[in-house]
Amino acid sequence: MSAVIWLALDGVGHPADAPPDSVWEQDLPALRPLIDAGLALDAALGVPGLPQSGTGQSCWLTGLDAVQLMGKGGAGQQAGEHFGPHPGPTLQALLREASLPVRLTRAGGAAALLNFYPPGYFAAQARRPRYGCFPFSFLAAGLPLNPPGLPSVSPLLGLHHDFPWAAAQSLDDLRRTGESLARTAENADLLVIDLWLSDLLGHQGRPAAPPELLTAGKRYLRHLDALLSGMLGAGGRVVVGSDHGNFENLNIKAHTTARVPFAGSGVALGQPGNIVEAGAVMAGWFGLT
Ligand SMILES: [Zn+2]
């Protein structure tokens, strides 16, 4: 069976919890039916405060409650803590031991992180290592970033990095990339793309934000839609999830407590209620329990 391609969205709350006139309010012929047929999961995990990338992504990657783990041993006897954006020592130890790329590789499976990392990324990491949960987990598994011989995907998905985030690639380009990813999947077990531009755009949110922000947000989802349509058209098995809300509400700058999508094609989603349980479901796809 071909690999599962995991589109790990950053900061994308479920459309059911988005305010009116959000980025979701548009025609997304591949993405929206997939999301609507999937689940909306709790990412707050019963802990006060706003969900963060470090703990949220660790929950997905391990199927364990990283938020509870962060609260342990704290001075205030607190029951859980949202932590991020990058994993610190506690979460790093968890990811080294229990993240999906590590466990899958240990079991003889083939996993790859397909993000394209530019030279500047490696230079910045050399000065001050601050890997996000996804690159950290793949490195912990002994796997390279920018894996040779595999297609790489920019998490910008064909948008410029800076305001007004204009399109640098066509939807057809993205569709073709999606098709090529689905073909690559025939020789692997798990392919992951860590898609963080949504969170960056979400943090630009504010009351009366410039209209270019909403336009760019909608563009990002259309590009994601095109990538997905290429994958699905070529028979790819795909899962879409997100670590917390943010991007679905561009009226505010911060993360949100919105539920997050868990959706897929060619995979059994089961009945998880939160992102920890969803992480466990995903591990189960590879016989890891
Ligand atoms: Zn995040």
UniProtKB/TrEMBL annotation:
Pfam entry (one): Metalloenzyme
Gene3D superfamilies listed in its UniProt record: Alkaline Phosphatase, subunit A (3.40.720.10)
SUPFAM superfamilies hit by this protein: Alkaline phosphatase-like
Location of the Metalloenzyme domain: 179-264
Name of the protein this chain belongs to: Metalloenzyme domain protein
Protein's organism: Deinococcus rubellus
